[in-house]
């Protein structure tokens, strides 16, 4: 069967079988795992995941690849539609999905919105193939950096894809950061709280977050005035406090200046 991927649809298929096997090794798959794959393409990665996982939920929006995907093992459910509605969390609070792991070479345009919907997802492992340039976006993001860190497992030159994209890629392990309540990490807690309430001015979400943090971690009844004073004394730039947390700068400031409260 002839393969006709469309680069305009971000269809760059990983064809190096050694790298494909490495992805499943990084994911530490077992028969207890339900794995999500977004952008199954012709099923190269899907087949390898299916060998080790209990179940695979594979999304592929392009039905022209159906002849390839129809031969996959019985533990694979292929869904021929956009994965967006399936991965959406619909709210910024901890949730579980029916899948506990993600192993995917997703379409480039899907990566950022997908990561936003991983922020509050409870998962065991997320292994992704992403363009190198996007790695900087993850590591430099105030939001993404409040929920996980990316560990580079291997570099993937563009020649390992068909067709070859313009940029090289990396395989990352998206490691979830520990619960800031359990670790008493005030900076991380406040950053997450700001993101949950990003429609508010930063000064207001920080005030509410401080009150909640002191109660949950130390059992203290922190007043609004105490919270306001703590924020004022921290030295965070006033212009950042007077607007919603829309950039990485306010997240960095909060981490530096309100990161060790007790």
How would you describe the overall organization of this protein?
With 262 residues, this protein is an alpha/beta fold. The chain contains twelve helices and nine strands. The strands form two sheets. Strands 4-3-2-5-6-9-7 form a seven-stranded mixed sheet. A two-stranded antiparallel ribbon has the order 1-8. Helix 1 crosses helix 2 (44-52) and helix 8 packs across helix 9 (202-218). The longest helix is centred in the last third of the chain and has 17 residues, at 202-218.
Topology:
Elements: E1 13-14, H1 17-26, E2 34-38, H2 44-52, E3 55-59, H3 66-69, E4 76-79, H4 84-87, E5 101-104, H5 108-116, E6 125-131, H6 132-139, E7 148-156, E8 161-162, E9 169-176, H7 180-183, H8 186-196, H9 202-218, H10 224-234, H11 238-241, H12 248-257
Parallel strand pairs: 2-3, 2-5, 3-4, 5-6
Antiparallel strand pairs: 1-8, 6-9, 7-9
Helix pairs in contact: 1-2, 8-9, 8-12, 9-10
Any key phrases for this structure?
two-stranded antiparallel sheet, Rossmann fold, alpha/beta, 9 strands, 262 residues, single chain, elongated, 7-stranded mixed sheet, 39% helix, 12 helices
Nutshell version of this structure?
The chain is α/β, with parallel strands linked by helices and 262 residues long.
For the termini, the CA-CA separation is 64 Å
Q: Any idea what the radius of gyration is?
A: 21 Å
Find the CATH topology of the largest domain. Answer: Rossmann fold
User: What name goes with the CATH superfamily of the largest domain?
Assistant: Vaccinia Virus protein VP39
Structural class: alpha/beta
How many structurally independent domains? 2
CATH class of the largest domain: Alpha Beta
Rough outline: elongated
Helix content: 25-40%
Going by CATH, the architecture of the largest domain would be 3-Layer(aba) Sandwich
The helix/strand series, from N terminus to C terminus, equals: EHEHEHEHEHEHEEEHHHHHH
* Beta-strand fraction estimate: 15-25%
Pfam families: RrnaAD
GO molecular function: RNA binding; rRNA (adenine-N6,N6-)-dimethyltransferase activity
InterPro entries: DNA_methylase_N6_adenine_CS, KsgA/Erm, rRNA_Ade_diMease-like_C, rRNA_Ade_Mease_Trfase_CS, rRNA_Ade_methylase_Trfase_N, SAM-dependent_MTases_sf
Keywords: Methyltransferase, RNA-binding, S-adenosyl-L-methionine, Transferase
């Amino acid at each position: 069967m002839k393969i006709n991927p469309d680069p305009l649809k971000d269809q760059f298929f990983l064809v190096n079988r050694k790298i494909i096997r490495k992805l499943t090794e990084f994911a530490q798959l077992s028969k207890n795992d339900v794995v999500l794959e977004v952008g199954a393409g012709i099923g190269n990665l899907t087949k390898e995941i299916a060998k080790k996982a209990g179940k695979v939920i594979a999304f592929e929006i392009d039905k022209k690849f159906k002849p390839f995907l129809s031969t996959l093992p019985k533990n694979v459910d292929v869904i021929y539609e956009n994965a967006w509605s399936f991965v959406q969390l619909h709210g910024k609070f901890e949730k579980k999905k029916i899948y506990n792991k993600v192993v995917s070479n997703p379409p480039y345009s899907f990566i950022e919105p997908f990561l936003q919907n991983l922020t509050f997802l409870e998962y065991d492992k997320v292994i992704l193939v992403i363009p190198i340039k996007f790695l900087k976006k993850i590591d430099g993001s105030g939001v993404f950096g409040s929920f996980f860190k990316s560990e580079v497992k291997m570099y993937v030159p563009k020649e390992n894809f068909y067709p070859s994209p313009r940029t090289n890629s990396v395989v990352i392990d998206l490691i979830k950061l520990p619960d800031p309540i359990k670790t008493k990490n005030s900076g991380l807690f406040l950053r997450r709280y700001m993101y949950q309430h990003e429609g508010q001015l930063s000064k207001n979400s920080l005030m509410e977050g401080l009150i909640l943090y002191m109660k949950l971690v130390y059992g203290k009844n922190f007043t609004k005035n105490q919270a306001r004073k703590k924020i004022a004394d921290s030295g965070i730039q006033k212009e950042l406090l007077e607007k919603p947390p829309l950039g990485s700068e306010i997240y960095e400031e909060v981490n530096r200046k309100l990161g060790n409260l007790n």
